[in-house]
Amino acid sequence: MKKFYAIVLSCLxxxxxxxxxATVTIRQxxxxxxxxxxxxxxxxxxxGIVTAHDVTSFWIQDSSKAWNGLYVYSTSAGGQVSVxxxxxxxxxxxxxxxxxxxxxxxNVNVVSSGNALPAPLLLTTTVSGSEPYESVLVRVKATCTNxxxxxxxxxxxxxxxxxxxxxxIIAYTPTLNCKYTVTGPMYYSFSEWKIQIRDTTAxxxxxxxGGGSGNPGDTTTIYKIQYTTATSxxxxxxxxxxxxxxxxxxxxxxxxWIQDSSKAWNGIYVFDGNNTPSPGxxxxxxxxxxxxxxxxxxxxxxxxxxxxxxxxxxxVSVSTAAANQEMFEGVRIQVTxxxxxNDQVASNFGQWELNDGTGxxxxxxxxxxxxxxxxxKYTVTGPLLYSFSEWKIEPCGAADVEVFVGIDDDQRVAGLNIFPxxxxxxxxxxxxxxxxxxxxxxxxxxxxxxxxxxxxxxxTLDVSALPRGMYMLQVTAGEKSSTQRIVLR
Length: 489
Hints:
By secondary structure, the protein is mainly β. It has 5 domains: 21-112, CATH 2.40.50.140; 121-209, CATH 2.40.50.200; 222-307, CATH 2.40.50.200; 316-403, CATH 2.40.50.140; 409-488, Immunoglobulin-like. 8% of the residues lie in helices and 46% in strands. The strands form 6 sheets. It has a 5-stranded mixed beta barrel with strand order 2-3-4-6-5. A 5-stranded mixed beta barrel has the order 8-9-10-12-11. A 5-stranded mixed β-barrel has the order 14-15-16-18-17. The longest helix has 19 residues, at 2-20. Mean pLDDT is 87; it is low at 1-19.
């Protein structure tokens, strides 16, 4: 009898283990309207063909469709497979800084080898860098607009918007202004989409050089104009004729700022009395690089708008002290949770001062005048200007100055995670439920409540009907409260 019960218990245990390790498709793992896998934290079994391999990990895919690729992070499993292997694999699904992946692999079975890879999907540069194509083999045909954007990356743009090409597997040095056909799995890291090329012959094909996609010919990059080690901060291309590509981020009365990535040295002011582009325009600018009282800018002679309505480069988050640096000149930056230490705008040429404890930065009123309150904390966004021997952030509008209400770390809701941000249709909000049921409220920038709900530790907000723009999401649980800015696109 004891032996009988032992057999029954063993069967029940095996059945339980089998149910805990469901067999699912890659699409079932990946498809989610909020960007977070529905199998997050679960151990599952799936299958596919290995499409790419880096030092420690690999990508698998089971068809040439959106949502059908998966990144596998595993040193041990990586050594057991090769590109073209059809495998069955068991592991835990995780979201690593926004990238859906499989980790903690417990079993890999190579079913067959030498299989043809799924055909890459031919996409625009903007569409390729989006959630449905995460870890999927993609192909783009576009112009190199920045051959060295930092960290081994370069930029392609077919006129719809930029996408990065990365060197996680292999490095390649492209030629500015040349057209390429580039193929590889789509990867997500540091809040950026990037194609990972697997070799420098089949995956990178130079189609032609010169012109195309609105490109006016011989060009340089903003980085090459801005990067300098000179103590004066002067551009190495000072007084030279230049042609650059960038996205318009902000306008003042005499010109505009353009930027080609969310990095230091990648923004510049364009003095242009003849053209008035709009924020979000992708443009080619031709003119002369000059130093205007030690502020590097381009005196434009022509402007060619390639496309409009593109997303702005994300602001670079810096401390108030770090904002006072040459490397961020012309770059759209953001300081957060900084206290107003001088609100006397009337006696300070419309300027006021913020300090997050590291040092002060000035906030100017060139495009948007604001009357702050001393002692309150603010989040401020805008391009960095240098004038009258002072660095200052220039907010472009009301949305760029926000009162920061989530103050000290010990007063915030623990484990708060909001994804995706920017969002389109839904916001997934999760947090530590140790403080009890939380109230989740979405406000617009003038303080109007747009929606409110209550949740124990997670909820999904349907924001599809709301106007596109910026909002504030507040989560309050007991005496804890956190507020985060949300962008709807």
